[in-house]
From TrEMBL:
The species this protein was found in: Pseudoneobacillus rhizosphaerae
UniProt entry keywords in alphabetical sequence: Cell membrane, Membrane, Transmembrane, Transmembrane helix
Subcellular location, record wording: Cell membrane
Organism taxonomic ancestry: Bacteria, Bacillati, Bacillota, Bacilli, Bacillales
Name of the protein in its database record: UPF0344 protein NEOCIP111885_02961
A cellular component annotation (GO) from this entry: plasma membrane
Length: 121
């Protein structure tokens, strides 16, 4: 399940940058299509993530200290999805996105750190 999860978020990240370039290039229709595909990737990310969380719960990990890390990773992951959506919306409206990019890098980095550290359990 981890491979499907990682593949989905990697594809979403690549498609996010493709959508940014399409929006900035004036190709609104192409950007809209890519955004819809990104949203399907988000559903796959959430689905595989919750399946991994369910597996961790059934093995009793959520009752330990690692359980809080799993919950934090879920919250940070949802935050990454929200920040990606907000950045795309603001780029489309030609508004400033500097602070959101900084937040995205920080939250995504924390999510990656937690995700890779939790695979050790």
């Amino acid at each position: 399940m981890q491979h499907a999860h990682m593949t989905a978020w990697f594809l979403a990240l690549v498609l996010f940058f493709v959508a940014i370039f399409l929006i900035k290039g004036g190709k609104a229709k192409g950007a809209k299509i890519v955004q819809m595909i990104i949203r399907v990737m988000f559903l796959l990310i959430l689905g595989t993530g919750f399946m991994m969380l369910s597996k961790a719960n059934s093995s009793g990990i959520l009752g330990s200290d690692a359980g809080l890390q799993y919950i934090l990773k879920v919250l940070l992951g949802v935050g990454v999805i929200g920040l990606i959506e907000m950045i795309l919306a603001r780029v489309k409206k030609k508004k400033s996105t500097g602070v959101m990019w900084i937040a995205l890098v920080i939250v995504f980095g924390l999510t990656l750190y937690l995700g890779f550290s939790l695979t050790l359990y």
